[in-house]
Amino acid sequence: PSVPRHTNRLINEKSPYLLQHAHNPVDWYPWGQEAFDKAKIENKLIFLSVGYSTCHWCHVMEEESFKSKEIGEIMNEHFVCIKVDREERPDVDKVYMTFVQATSGGGGWPMSVWLTPDLKPFAGGTYFPPEDGVHRVGFRTVLLRIAEQWKENKDALLESSQRILEALRHTSEIRVQDQESPPPPKEVMDTCFQQLSRSYDEDYGGFSKSPKFPTPVNLNFLFTYWALHRTTPEGARALQMALHTLKMMAHGGIHDHVGQGFHRYSTDQHWHVPHFEKMLYDQGQLAAVYSRAFQISGDEFFADVVRDILLYVSRDLSDQAGGFYSAEDADSYPTTTSGEKREGAFCVWTAEELRALLPDPVEGVTEGTTLADVFMHHYGVKEAGNVDPMKDPHQELKGKNVLIASCSLELTAAKFGLELGRLSALLQECRQRLSSARAQRPRPHLDTKMLAAWNGLMISGFAQAGAALAEQGYVSRAAQAAAFLRTHLFDPNSGRLLRSCYRGKDNSVEQSAVPIQGFLEDYVFVIQALFDLYEASLEQGWLEWALNLQHMQDKLFWDPKGYAYFSTEAGDPSLLLRLKDDQDGAEPTPNSVTVTNLLRAACYSGNMDWMEKAGKILAAFSERLQKIPITLPEMVRATAVFHHTLKQVVICGDPQGEDTKEMLHCVRSVFSPNKVLMVADGDSSGFLYRQLPFLSSLERKDGKATAYVCSNFVCSLPVTSVQELREMLSP
Fold first, then answer.
1. 659 burial type by CB count under 10 A (0-12 exposed, 13-18 middle, 19+ buried)
2. Where is the Spermatogenesis-associated protein 20-like TRX domain (predicted)?
3. Which of 240, 334, 412, 459 could potentially form a cystine with 378 if both were Cys, beta carbons 3.0 to 4.6 Å apart?
4. How far separated are the first and last CA of the chain, in Å rounded?
5. Where are the alpha helices (DSSP H) in 153-232?
6. 3-class DSSP state for residue 113?
7. In this structure, are residues 501 and 510 in contact, taking their beta carbons and an 8 Å threshold?
8. What value, to the nearest 5°, has the Cα angle with vertex 244 and ends 351 and 301?
9. Contact 444, 332 (CB under 8 A)
């Protein structure tokens, strides 16, 4: 490669996204004091650009504007330019995204914001094309106009930025009102169910026409709603909505049928043409939700999807030290000689390619039928490509096919006169061949940053899958990743989590010169992961660490006046707002998940303060939960768990004994949204016995493994039969 003509300060960073911009002609600074001081000393405005390394439109804006020498000169002359990786610094991203959404009615990445030298925002947007068009002002024009305004109307700009900040402070505040109790769970659950039911797509599943996101939070809510309303028509509909959505997603092009795993979202109603990046947080949550679908339905189809996701993550997103990488890009070079990346190039096929790869005649069917004929029929492949031109504005997918299981195995088998088992084997062989062919293509960029929060979500995925599918290998992989977190993303001296670490040279794990401290989401998702891992592995060390982290989370983020947790800790002067997220999106909001974490923590420790805190969070969000619960389905789910009280399922027995294992298998195979599992192994010096003295009074009956189902530490009569236990577990 030729020597780059420009190098800026980002060359010293670890974030893959910042390093992508290290050779722009823009004089980029990372977020930090050096940039803030320069803006103040030179009395310059700040241009803040926020994105992430696998973001398609971030790449487009870089190619068009940030690589332009002429635009770079305008930026350098008039502004101090700062680049932020939103995955590394969600705190900075959220403050300014709150501003962009409030002032423009929309948001997204790349996010472009102009700030005064004291970091107050006054103008912003997302992607800007480089030059003026019919419908949009170009980036160059915006830069020059804002520079002119600063020169001519500085006082007005400063005044306006102060007013904007005050308004944001006021509108973004979430605090407990006069009513200090959690909202009524039945009404909140019913309203949320009705709102989801109204937005449900009866044909293709999902909860909007397009674009369609997987949103596991909606599906988890529906499973809990079903569990609490099993005998009602509403309960049946909740289950049908969730399972149908999961089936349609798995059949769709959002699911990578050749390389496994799920893409970020579908651009159309049919789950067909995706935005091709693959995010770790989706894989973790989807592995967990498909595991629950398997627990509930017993349908192997869902278990196979779980295996598919975890195969992808183990192979393509795993660091050899045990952590999980963040994402794979949507864009890649179509061939090794291409000069330009295209979205989806790694994943799509022409009919001609498929015919060349799958020419073999299929025996015992109509003469002349090849593997390609069978495969192309099943996966909706068309000679001229199967992508609607309306979903392909840049013509990147013209003539290409995104594989989608367009009919059932039964219909394809009937069409070609094949037995089901044989058809499955043929399709599997075809996918293997395509996988080998794809391995010859240039791979998309891999973001090898490792984030505590997203690793937490993925550990939960492996742990829950291991428990539900009785696959010990998945539990071991979860434990390996948790050990990685303890080694690389935890400071034992301070007891605090760190946000991120990075794959370095020679595959070592590196940390930035000044490590980024963990945010609320890091604590919440890691604590959830450790509880899930304890229930799957019964290793009490994970439980002890989870409870210690919960104490640290309380200390750093709890709002004693308004209740609930702030997303960031106090004391960073560069953050203008301390926010509390109020919407479950692609990931659940941390306050939603932490309600269930606190209830689990109380059950494992006997510390009732945590139960009280859970109620206070629900009280702080009460108004939103009652008016628009569809924005917080995970918190609505937690409201039900809070109200119904978690069942402590205690198995007294030797963890290695067959009778104990049978009972554990029973507990893990039943979907019960309001239970915690623990094993009383008789070791009174162990961590659990020290936390929960009542365990010492529970005994085995007739020398057999014995189960107790307890509520607030008051226990049922002992049972030794798996059948009785199963009945006790249903809500």
1. middle
2. 7-168
3. 412
4. 63
5. 154-171, 185-199, 216-228
6. strand
7. yes
8. 70
9. yes
Q: What is the mean pLDDT of residues 555-577?
A: 94
Asked if residues 650 and 695 have their Cβ atoms less than 8 Å apart, the reply is: yes
Cβ neighbours, 10 Å, residue 404: 21
CA–CA dist 225, 159 (Å, integer): 49
Task: Give the Cα separation of 286 and 283 in Å (integer).
Answer: 5
Query: Among the residues of 200-341, which ranges form H helices?
Result: 216-228, 233-251, 280-297, 300-316
Q: Distance between alpha carbon 374 and the CA centroid of its chain, in Å?
A: 35
Q: Which CATH number fits domain 645-730: 3.90.1570, 3.30.390, 3.30.750, 3.40.30?
A: 3.40.30
The tokens for 512 are 């930035």
Please say if the pLDDT value at position 171 is more than 90.
Answer: no
Span 668-679, mean pLDDT?
A: 94
Q: How far apart are CA 561 and CA 438, in angstroms?
A: 56
C-alpha span between 33 and 51 (Å, rounded) = 20
Classify domain 10-172 at the CATH topology level.
Glutaredoxin (3.40.30)
What pLDDT score does 1 carry? 52
Amino acid symbol at 41: I
Q: Print burial letters for 540-573: b (CB count within 10 Å at least 16), e (below 16).
A: bbbbbbbbebbebbbebbebeeebbbbbbbeeee
Q: Is 439 exposed, middle or buried (0-12, 13-18, 19+ CB in 10 A)?
A: exposed
User: How many residues would you count in the chain?
Assistant: 731
Do strands 79-85 and 28-30 pair parallel, antiparallel, or not at all (unpaired)?
Answer: parallel
Q: Is the pLDDT of residue 709 over 90?
A: yes
Which secondary structure element, helix H or strand E, spans residue 20, and what is its range?
helix 16-20
Q: Are 510 and 14 in contact (CB under 8 A)?
A: yes
Q: What is the mean pLDDT of residues 70-86?
A: 97
Residue 38 clears pLDDT 90, i.e. is over it: yes
List pLDDT tens digits, range 130-162.
Answer: 999 888 899 999 999 999 999 999 999 999 999
Find all residues with CB under 8 Å of 665, minimum gap 6, and list them: 470
Same fold yes or no, 10-172 and 645-730: yes
Write down the pLDDT at residue 731. Answer: 62
Distance from C-alpha of 562 to C-alpha of 565, rounded to nearest angstrom: 9
Residues with Cβ within 8 Å of residue 599, at least 6 apart in sequence: 610, 611, 614, 638, 641, 642, 646
Q: What confidence score (pLDDT) does residue 460 get?
A: 98
Q: What integer best gives the mean pLDDT of the chain?
A: 95
Cβ contact 483:455 at 8 Å = no
Predicted TM-score (pTM) of the model is 0.96
d(CA 165, CA 453): 29
Nearest Cα neighbor of 523 from 611, 587, 452, 572 is: 452
Name the token pair of 66: 């940030």
Q: Where are the domains of the chain?
A: 10-172, 205-236+251-278+334-446, 645-730
Query: How far apart are alpha carbons 64 and 247 in whole angstroms?
Result: 39
- Which residues are CB-contacts of 587 (< 8 A; sequence separation ≥ 6)? 281, 285, 453, 457, 521
In sequence order, what are the beta bridge partners of 496? 491
Structure tokens at 411: 């219909």
Residue 72: name the closest of 117, 126, 123, 5 by CA.
5
Please give the Cα distance from 651 to 483 (Å, whole number): 26
At 273, phi and psi to the nearest 5?
A: -95, 110
Q: What angle do CA 703, 704, 706 make, to 5 degrees?
A: 120
Alpha-carbon 349 to chain mean position: 28
